[in-house]
Design goal:
This protein is mostly beta strands. It has no helices and 11 strands. The chain is about 0% helix and about 55% strand. The strands form 2 sheets. Strands 2, 4, 5, 6, 9, 10 and 11 form a 7-stranded mixed beta sheet that branches.
Length: about 120
């Protein structure tokens, strides 16, 4: 059974930092592209950051220089370090694991991030 379990969301003031983590089980973690997506109320889900099998990273323009994605292949975790948070970063953040090899696309349950004073 595949599970992606996010943690680390919460309420933070503008300019603050948060670290999200996603623990994966039931997949061959090293063969998946892992990503973080977010969905704000009334908006479509959008890619925030991703890290490929080879370790290449990709970021949305709006978070470049502020967010950092990383992974631990041994622990099967992917993290998103978020700094200088802005109110527009408020959203539910979802962990995603995707593999073209296995034709698989898995999602976590989401964790709320609220940036407000």
């Amino acid at each position: 059974q595949v599970q992606l379990v996010e943690s680390g969301g919460g309420l933070v003031q503008p300019g603050g930092s948060l670290r999200l983590s996603c623990a994966a089980s039931g997949i061959i973690f090293s063969l998946y592209t892992m990503g973080w997506y977010r969905q704000a109320p009334g908006k479509q889900r959008e890619l925030v950051a991703s890290i490929t099998r080879s370790g290449s990273t990709n970021y949305a323009e709006s978070v470049k220089g502020r967010f950092t994605i990383s992974r631990d292949i041994v622990k099967k975790t992917v993290s998103l370090e978020m700094t200088n948070l802005k109110p527009e970063d408020t959203a539910v953040y979802y962990c995603n694991g995707a593999s073209t090899t296995f034709r698989a696309d898995y999602w976590g349950q989401g964790t709320q991030v609220t940036v407000s004073s």
